[in-house]
Design brief:
alpha/beta; 6-stranded mixed β-sheet; 3-stranded mixed β-sheet; 8 helices
Length: 298
């Protein structure tokens, strides 16, 4: 039996949109806590997963991607949420898309370096790099400005390097006992997880700007002996998009509902009945006073 002390703490993931933060969180936790799509800015909330290992336990916080768009209040809000998520954590993991770093990656790195917390620099998507010799100059360049306590190379999609990353994170955490039951994989409510699974299907099944103007509110969530009964309302910011979302004969909404129901049931391990309706909340993305009522934290 190891004499090493148990370590516990909180870790923030920061990076640009589509750097792979949500995929990495799900890989670390072993459950589909954070929704993942091919579209940028999929993550709109701080999402907390719990990682359990024999020598340590930590909460990992997936943050919205730090981005340069300022075209509406929601984008500005998401950048604030990402920056504020770095406060009070024990370690900040900066996730960089090694296949094509951008200025938004550098913005995320600057936010991490200004946090005052230990930084682990992680190059993701290394499976896409054919010439691995590129990694050395890239590592030297980023390390010079970021001064990380460690550098890791991973593929969040395949899992390569993730176990080594977990070990490195635990080494940086303070000594402490586990805070959570080993069966618990997130602090998020089931209502929140259900809303996110619906929003995931909106992003996957709608195109161009339509899914970005949607948000999901769970109006009722009731557990019965046989199944979970959920009623959700999808709100669109532009009345013109309501018909697109519903689709001819309601087919698009039915497809979104069916796929979301299956995903919720798989995550929660229960049969699910999901009823979705569509409403209009004109220009909600520019009305910050609406955000708390729609589930967006201040």
């Amino acid at each position: 039996m190891s004499d090493a002390p148990h370590r516990a703490g909180e870790v923030a993931l920061v990076g640009r949109p589509n750097a792979g933060k949500s995929t990495l969180l799900n890989r670390l936790v072993g459950e589909s806590v954070s929704i993942v799509t091919h579209k940028p800015q999929t993550t709109r909330h701080r999402i907390r997963g719990i990682v359990h290992r024999p020598g340590g336990q930590f909460v990992v916080v997936d943050t919205p991607g730090i981005h340069q768009r300022r075209d509406h209040a929601l984008n500005r809000h998401l950048n604030r949420v990402a920056a504020e998520s770095l406060r009070g954590v024990d370690v900040v993991v900066v996730l960089v898309d090694a296949s094509r770093p951008t200025e938004e990656d550098r913005s995320a790195a600057r936010a991490a370096s200004q946090s005052g917390q230990p930084v682990i620099l992680v190059f993701n998507k290394i499976d896409r790099i054919k010439d691995r010799e590129r990694l050395l100059p890239m590592t030297e360049e980023w390390s010079e400005s970021l001064r990380p306590v460690a550098v890791q190379y991973v593929s969040a999609l395949s899992g390569d390097g993730v176990d080594d990353l977990v070990g490195t994170i635990i080494e940086q955490l303070p000594e402490g006992p586990p805070r959570f039951d080993p069966d618990l994989f997130t602090e998020e409510s089931q209502r929140f997880l259900a809303a996110e699974k619906v929003r995931e299907q909106l992003l996957e099944n709608l195109h161009q700007e339509v899914p970005y103007g949607t948000t999901v509110v769970i109006e009722s969530f009731e557990e019965t002996p046989s199944r979970i009964e959920i009623a959700g309302r999808i709100l669109v910011a532009d009345a013109r998009h309501k018909g697109i979302l519903i689709g001819k004969g309601g087919q698009t909404l039915k497809r979104i509902g069916s796929r979301a129901r299956a995903a919720i049931g798989e995550l929660l391990g229960r049969r699910v009945h999901l009823e979705l309706t569509v409403g209009v909340d004109e220009d909600w993305m520019n009305r910050e006073e609406r955000f708390p009522g729609l589930g967006y934290e201040r």
